[in-house]
What does this fold into?
Amino acid sequence: MGHNGAVTRSDANTSSRRRWIALGAFFLVLVVAGGLAFGWNAWRQAPPAVVDQPIASPPTATATPKAPIVVIVSIDGFNPEGLALLGKASAPHLTQIAQRGASTMNARTSRDSTKTLPNHTGMLTGREINGAHGHGVDFNDDNGSTLAADTGTYVPGIFDVAHDRGLRTAFFAEKDKFTYLLRSWDSVHGAADTTGDDNGADKIDHWNIADAAQIVSEATSLIEAQHTDVIFVHLASADRAGHAHGWLSDAYLTALVSVDDSIGAIRTAIDTSERPATLIVTSDHGGPHGNTIHSDSTQLANVRIPFMVYGDAVAKPGDLYELNPARTNPTNRLADGTRDHPIRNIDATNTALGILGLVPISGAVSTTWPPIQLR
It folds into this structure.
């Protein structure tokens, strides 16, 4: 501006430059602000950065549970008082099986008899001797016949149920009279297999009647080989000593120590089995102190026997009657069993079949009793 107030060219030019500078600055601010806004929105809307993750392994397939093995051992003439007299020092295996398993020293024989062959027939069929569903074996020696011929109808046993469902079976005994049971379920006299695949009429895959050393060796070999599912073993030395020298005599107790050694070999095979394995120990009868005869079923010492379950199937070790309150723990002889149901040796079959996950034997009287619980 001049001294007289007029606007000069220089002033005009300076003013124009200032307006353009201001305008440029304004647009620059707009551009920067817009860019920042665009960048902010773009950052907000952009997908999150991908972070490398380890490749997940496919889920591991659940292993199929291994099938169980069940071994039933009958100690012929086993008066449980003998075990109490020997104790852990002389009979460590039987003592520990009783303590670490589900057991009772107050089980009972068949209500109808305290003889060997009738009780073992019941032990393997789940049946009493008499009655509409009895197995009918009231004699005590091999008569050369069969169960089917003597009763007029086929009598299935534990080996029928197991073998007809594809399991392998074994039978070992020390007394020749057991040939009667082997014959009843052999390839000639066994029933046709109508369950699933035809596994044949012969219900017993392995068998032998020999001395204790031989049959225990064969039984333990089968357990170790892991391909036999149901094994029955009969041990007779305690019964022989009882008949020769009297029950609970020194000779009887010495024989029971030998039996304990046999049980120890079987127990070791059970304990080291890769498959779940369970041992059931019971007896066909006891025997009276100082007497050589056990046939009187009115005597408590003859009808009272042990029943012990040891191994993987036992979830709650303890007294079997406490684990099974529906069963009657007898305070006397209680040999008739018509109203009360103590644990009996004929429970061996359906207890074993339950462990194997198989159905009870059809027609067996023990199927009408509360099943023995181990869990």
Notes: The longest helix spans residues 9-45. Residues 1-59 have pLDDT under 50 and may be disordered. The chain has one domain: 69-368.
